[in-house]
């Protein structure tokens, strides 16, 4: 088993940013991008309980950040429940910094890599395409 992680767009258009997370071609979870306010975006991620702790979320988020940078975004923002130790550790490992915290949530942010010379106008998915690890854009 290669443990290859891919993102499969499931939205109905280029601005509908929902993705299935696939692990070796099988469903492993999902990511929804929301609160899109260029140059930043927020997202939610869910990984199947049986697949947690295998690096699926980390690899899927790296793919998401590459895709969003390709679309012209610069910053990712995420809110995590203060008692979600696994998600807090994941986002810390991905280089997120604390923006705000209250009793109900921890807000974290980080820059996403940008790809020079790739305009957001070039992003138009006619058909869903998997976003694969090791894929280079631009």
What does this structure look like?
By secondary structure, this protein is of the alpha+beta class. The chain has one domain: Gcn5-related N-acetyltransferase (GNAT) (Aminopeptidase, 3-Layer(aba) Sandwich), CATH 3.40.630.30. Helix content is 17%, strand content 36%. It is built from 2 helices and 8 strands. The protein has an 8-stranded mixed β-sheet with strand order 6-7-5-4-3-2-1-8, with helices on one face.
Strand-helix topology:
Blueprint: E1 5-9, E2 18-23, E3 26-37, E4 40-47, H1 56-70, E5 75-80, H2 85-93, E6 97-101, E7 106-111, E8 131-132
Parallel strand pairs: 4-5
Antiparallel strand pairs: 1-2, 1-8, 2-3, 3-4, 5-7, 6-7
Instruction: Return the string of H and E elements.
Output: EEEEHEHEEE
**Which structural class fits the helix and strand makeup?**
alpha+beta
Fraction of residues in H or I helices: 10-25%
* Number of separate structural domains: 1
Indicate the low-confidence ranges by residue numbers: 114-131
- Total beta strand runs: 8
Radius of gyration: 15 Å
CATH superfamily: Gcn5-related N-acetyltransferase (GNAT)
In order across it, which strands form the biggest sheet? 6-7-5-4-3-2-1-8
- Oligomeric state, counting identical vs distinct chains: single chain
So what's the overall shape? globular
Summarize the biggest pleated sheet: 8 strands, mixed
């Amino acid at each position: 088993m290669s443990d290859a992680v891919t993102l499969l767009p499931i939205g109905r258009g280029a601005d509908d940013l929902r993705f299935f997370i696939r692990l070796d071609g099988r469903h492993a979870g999902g990511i929804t991008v929301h609160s899109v306010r260029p140059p930043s975006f927020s997202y939610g991620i869910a990984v199947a309980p049986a697949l947690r702790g295998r690096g699926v979320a980390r690899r899927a988020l790296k793919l998401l950040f590459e895709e969003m940078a390709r679309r012209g975004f610069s910053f990712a923002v995420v809110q995590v429940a203060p008692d979600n130790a696994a998600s807090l550790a994941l986002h810390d490992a991905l280089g997120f910094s604390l923006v705000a915290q209250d009793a109900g949530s921890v807000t974290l942010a980080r820059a996403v890599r940008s790809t020079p010379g790739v305009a957001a106008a070039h992003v138009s998915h006619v058909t869903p395409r998997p976003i694969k690890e090791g894929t280079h854009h631009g």
